[in-house]
Write a structure and sequence with these properties.
The structure is a single chain. This protein is α/β, with parallel strands linked by helices. It has a single domain, classed as 4-Layer Sandwich (Purple Acid Phosphatase, chain A, domain 2). It is about 20% helix and about 25% strand. It is globular. The relative contact order is 0.17.
Length: about 260
């Protein structure tokens, strides 16, 4: 399986945002990533924080529609994940703009079962928040964990996990606020299943690579930072996993 990975566009009509974010460049960066990286890929995965709903700037729905048009124009299947900034829209309103079936879901690609998770909630009792969530207090709700457990049990082969918010960065022990709060219980499911080949995330803008329980945890760099692009082409085969990075995105390989 080969896929193009993009994340954290934070697209809107704002140039000099906080922490070096140049939001208004993200659509052109996405076009460049699709033009240069999509050939030979089986699909595109967009790992969230696609557009920012800032008061006084362009409507988030217009921004999402522009991103969707670029992704559709690739001619490839594409799969989207909800990011914390995307929750400026109610999740139910967000789905149609990036052709999502639900807030978490499964798809099959290249012989792998791919599970898309939603960790963008601050209260496990309210998985469908009506206001934008806080970025540093993200959880996965019990109903979704039960679905994940069932998917892992029923999977006939290897599984790939996709989530906006990471489970770990370089090490499992870190208490970095970018991480899923109830990550330990979910990571146990991954390890006990013996089926999870890799976990892919965004959210942490610098990006990083980690390994735990024999599973690579791959966090991609944010496209929104600076003038240089950041995206990756990922190859998953029986022989290993290769991340080929472009721009600010680093490359790596696991065998």
């Amino acid at each position: 399986m080969r896929f193009l990975a993009v994340t954290d566009l934070h697209y809107t009509n704002l140039h000099d945002g906080v922490e070096g974010r140049q939001h208004d460049l993200s659509l052109d960066k996405l076009k460049q990533a699709v033009e240069n990286g999509a050939a030979g890929c089986d699909c595109i995965v967009n790992l969230g924080d696609t557009a920012d709903g800032f008061a006084g700037h362009r409507p988030q729905t217009e921004l999402l529609s522009e991103v969707r048009d670029v992704l559709r124009g690739s001619g490839l299947p594409y799969y989207a994940i909800i990011g914390n900034h995307d929750t400026s829209l109610p999740k139910e309103d967000f789905y149609p703009y990036l052709d999502m079936p639900d807030r978490y879901y499964a798809f099959d690609c290249g012989g792998y079962r791919c599970l898309v998770l939603d960790a963008c909630l601050n209260d496990v009792r309210e998985p469908l928040p009506q206001t934008e969530i806080q970025w540093d207090d993200c959880w996965i709700d019990p109903g979704q964990i039960a679905w994940l457990r069932q998917e892992l049990e029923q999977a006939a082969g290897d599984v790939l996990i996709f989530t906006h918010v990471p489970f770990m960065l370089e090490t499992r022990e870190t208490e970095n606020p970018h991480l899923i709060r109830n990550r330990d219980a979910v990571m146990e499911l991954f390890e006990k299943s013996g089926k999870v080949r890799a976990v892919f995330s965004g959210h942490y803008h610098d990006g990083c690579f980690g390994m735990c329980g024999g599973i690579p945890y791959i966090t991609f760099s944010a496209m929104v930072i600076g003038e240089e692009n950041a995206y990756a082409v990922v190859d998953v085969t029986d022989g290993g996993i290769t991340v080929t990075g472009f721009g600010r995105q680093k490359s790596a390989r696991w065998t």
